Amino acid sequence: MLSKKRENELSELADFIANQYCPKGIIDPTIIAKAKQISYCYGQYKNSFDGLIEYEAGSFHIYINSKDINSPRTRFTFAHELGHYFIDEHRNALLDGKTPSHPSNTNFSSKNPVEIEADFFASSLLMPKSRIKQDCFRQKFNFELIEKISQKYNTSITATILKLMTLDHHPIMIVCSINNNIKWFKYSHDFPFKWLKKPNGIVPKDSLAGEYFRTRKKHEKTVPVAADDWFEYVPERDYDRYFYEKCIYADKHNFVLSIIWED
Ligand SMILES: [Zn+2]
């Protein structure tokens, strides 16, 4: 997890760039790349990476491993690679040839601080804080708000939640589970519980995600869950403290994304 201070620095940097190059409407990473004379190409490369930035013979080049150029995922990958260019420490490392060009993957599960920073930059570039704050102003937090923002900015639900998490708009937690195992989770700095129940990494059975893995039952709607269903070390007085859980399912990958928040 990045420090609040670092998040603010990166968010301000991204906001500045977004407003400079795309002051109105949707943020288009290609406009920014062109303005900075960074060449780029979309392709279908065999290697399993989503994006790559390279510094060679005095110029930068971005490879995007997708041909679906307007998809939220591709746009995020592009913005991530721009992060490696715009964040001073990342660019200097590329210029010095200290870090060999590293392939990046857009799955939010990296533990590498450099990747976490580039991901954070990407969501802040595509969803500039100054604009998102207006969208959230006096809005009740719910899944509809997430959907509305992701459509407006052409960003994935996951990237949108991760951005909203950093705005102190509402305490939020997000848990990604595959094959009944918790793959990764993140929460906003102000989320009241930090310890997930996950014996041997298994999804807690009484959570909504747990229900899917046990019974294959899917919920279209947001469902209330008790603190004790998801969290460890819940003080007795909070056993019945209620949260909301909204799940997004992908049967093909036996995958569930849980968004958890308090009313
Ligand atoms: Zn990267």
Descriptive account of the structure:
The structure is a single chain. The chain has 263 residues and is an alpha+beta fold. The protein is built from 10 helices and 8 strands. It folds into 2 domains: 128 residues, no CATH class; 93 residues, Beta-Lactamase (2-Layer Sandwich), CATH 3.30.450. The model has no long low-confidence stretch (mean pLDDT 92). The site of zinc ion has 5 residues, from α3 and α5.
Brief description of this entry?
The chain has about 260 residues and is α+β, with helices and mostly antiparallel strands. It contains ten helices and eight strands.
Q: What is the overall shape?
A: globular
Major sheet summary line: 5 strands, antiparallel
Tally of discrete structural domains: 2
Named once each, the bound ligands are:
zinc ion
Main-sheet strand order equals 5-4-8-7-6
Estimate percent helicity: 25-40%
Distance between the termini: 24 Å
Structural class: alpha+beta
Strand content: 15-25%
The number of E-state strands comes to 8
- Helix tally? 10
Identify low-pLDDT runs.
none
Rounded mean pLDDT is 92
